[in-house]
């Protein structure tokens, strides 16, 4: 069952600010990104939500089609464009080894990320931050975006180390995208 957004609900950031629409992250949409935990444009289970809203803060399992042979590393971005914030809220930012082709449930946990995963700073702390939309704000869209980078990210972004840099600073310094894929899901609280 597809979840529909209610346009009468309060303020939302909007999709224009997603990493997906950044000119420096444009690339061929040739990666098929999917999850055994939810279908594209469908609801995401509460287990993947933040603990403060009754979830377990577990990132969903992800899998994707083969990346181009000259991929240096992968950049995974999870954003909420329906957050009542100036820019989409970043729920996770992570670098993955180019040889990685899937993540198990919980693979983006900062305390024990999956092999080949380097979790970076998100909107709150580091690692995966589960869904926690405001009550009665309607369902929020969560956009999982995977970018195959032709060159590795520099270890510094806008004067900060890559691990401590703000997500937007990392995203604006990223470029040379060889391929990309996207998976959208919904979660809301009454």
TrEMBL record:
Name the record gives this protein: YbhB/YbcL family Raf kinase inhibitor-like protein
GO molecular function annotation: protein kinase inhibitor activity
Keyword Methyltransferase applies: no
Family designation: Belongs to the UPF0098 family.
Keywords on record: Protein kinase inhibitor
Pfam family, one: PBP
CDD domains: PEBP_bact_arch (cd00865)
Organism from which the protein derives: Nocardia albiluteola
């Amino acid at each position: 069952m597809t979840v529909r957004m209610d346009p009468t609900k309060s303020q939302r950031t909007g999709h224009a600010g997603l990493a997906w629409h950044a000119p420096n992250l444009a690339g061929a949409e040739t990666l098929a990104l999917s999850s055994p935990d939810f279908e594209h444009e469908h609801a995401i289970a509460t287990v993947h939500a933040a603990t403060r809203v009754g979830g377990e803060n577990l990132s969903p399992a992800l899998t994707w089609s083969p990346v181009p042979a000259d991929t240096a590393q992968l950049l995974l971005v999870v954003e909420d464009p329906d957050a009542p914030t100036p820019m989409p809220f970043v729920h996770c930012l992570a670098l993955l080894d180019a040889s990685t082709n899937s993540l198990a449930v919980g693979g983006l946990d900062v305390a024990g990320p999956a092999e080949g995963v380097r979790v970076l700073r998100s909107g709150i702390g580091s690692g995966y931050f589960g869904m926690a939309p405001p009550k009665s704000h309607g369902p929020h869209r969560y956009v999982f975006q995977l970018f195959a980078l032709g060159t590795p990210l520099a270890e510094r972004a806008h004067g900060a180390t890559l691990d401590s840099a703000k997500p937007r600073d990392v995203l604006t310094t990223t470029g040379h995208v060889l391929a990309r894929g996207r998976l959208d899901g919904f979660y809301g609280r009454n």
